[in-house]
Amino acid sequence: xxxxxxxxxxxxxxxxxxxxxxxxxxxxxxxxxxxxxxxxxxxxxxxxxxxxxxxxxxxxxxxxxxxxxxxxxxxxxxxxxxxxxxxxxxxxxxxxxxxxxxxxxxxxxxxxxxxxxxxxxxxxxxxxxxxxxxxxxxxxxxxxxxxxxxxxxxxxxxxxxxxxxxxxxxxxxxxxxxxxxxxxxxxxxx
Amino acid sequence: xxxxxxxxxxxxxxxxxxxxxxxxxxxxxxxxxxxxxxxxxxxxxxxxxxxxxxxxxxxxxxxxxxxxxxxxxxxxxxxxxxxxxxxxxxxxxxxxxxxxxxxxxxxxxxxxxxxxxxxxxxxxxxxxxxxxxxxxxxxxxxxxxxxxxxxxxxxxxxxxxxxxxxxxxxxxxxxxxxxxxxxxxxxxxxxxxxxxxxxxxxxxxxxxxxxxxxxxxxxx
Amino acid sequence: xxxxxxxxxxxxxxxxxxxxxxxxxxxxxxxxxxxxxxxxxxxxxxxxxxxxxxxxxxxxxxxxxxxxxxxxxxxxxxxxxxxxxxxxxxxxxxxxxxxxxxxxxxxxxxxxxxxxxxxxxxxxxxxxxxxxxxxxxxxxxxxxxxxxxxxxxxxxxxxxxxxxxxxxxxxxxxxxxxxxxxxxxxxxxxxxxxxxxxxxxxxxxxxxxxxxxxxxxxxxxxxxxxxxxxxxxxxxxxxxxx
Lengths: 190, 220, 242
Known about the structure:
The complex is a heterotrimer. By secondary structure, chain A is α/β, with parallel strands linked by helices. Chain A is 29% helix and 12% strand. Chain C is mainly α.
């Protein structure tokens, strides 16, 4: 999917991954999160510092908002930052079943569960999708503050505002179509 | 681990089909079978342990579909795989939850369903005991089957085709315990083997199951 | 030069290309000799009459049914540990052959059982074990068929083969406790003083060697086909990508 890609991020860096659909933005985020493996090369990332938000919300519709937040707090084994919950406009919704939420609220809950964990590395797949302009800027500012505090943010971004100071990276040049063991099967080399 | 279990139990209690569905199926199955047989209770007595055990296997089989489905669809499973909680622990929680919500209630119901087959009390209790000892293995291999067929979506035939052969040793030993106890034969060896299959399945299957979940997530 | 160099699919296919003609010829000769010798040139058993001759099909196919599963287990382990794709494809290619051998063993057994025991089927431990083995073959093939077009198929089916082997063995012991057998003990074994009489023994050996070679040949050819299918898949993917 991707090859020849190499980068180093320091605390306080924000990486915004760009490129057309199907270029491998999601693949890269999933690889960083440890969901997909790399065929060649090395990946050094402190796994215990990761909070991941995929393109699905990871919100259970049969639990309430608070229960969903508490579940992820348990699983991530960290604090639940009340300030974040408030900023994302979830304070009044605590006892509402998640199935009654709008898609925007669902997305906010999904992101808040990860961001409120105070993890040092945030991996976000299209976080601005289905957020309205108000909460887009809330998230934008939140991420900017996080980065200023020395966190690392990596996100794929098709649209939405750019976090200030973010490094933009287009994946198009790194795209390739290869099977893991393609070479052994007599694949032509490009 | 605790958080996972709490979530599973909350969801089961809240869902409309939670405890009820597997139990209702078990009851319906056990009521249906005698209609295909002779009406004399004495004729029903000897196949009763097999029927009650088979009903339990089928009920557990029906409950497997929903073990991972919700978590897969809403993306929770994917996010869980990125947390420090190992997937093996997630799978163990799923196995325990499946056993407590789908397996254990059947064991209690079997004591009463035995009446339909004219079984004496001590034999009904033996059925219950052998189900309690054997159903954990069913939940364990069932969860493994569910994690193999994750990528296939709902309602496929793959799950039963994979799980049924894995249920064979438990089914054989489970019914053997009851039949031997009913005939007054020694059951110690058989019973211990049945229990050890359950314990070993619970101890080892999570690794195989987590491997399958991870593989399915990687290529999803 | 090591065994692992054949993990390279191209090298493996070249080896298969060279081996297949010899294997085929030898397999046909051995099978023809074994079966013709067994069927026409051995005396009838004093008790079983001519029915005894079905062992020239029954025993070899039963042995292959088990051996092919063991080969699949080995191939699956190699795939899980060393990630050689050929190994995984070989396991995939072998499964239907093994299932077929199990079916032959069950059917010939039933025919023999009908004349000797008076019944097509009995719940004897050996018969039951083979039925269970057949179910495991089916499960394995079903898994491959379901995930045919996905990269995860190799891993998932290898894991099923591993777990299935443990449970197949468990079933075998469970079945032994469960039922007293009707089936006679193994026809051949290395540690027994006397096997069956030499008159039956040598044609049986030829027939077993024939079955083994036929299985080997079919598995090799099927593996070669699987490798080619994967190559086509990879080339096709390249055509589609810019």
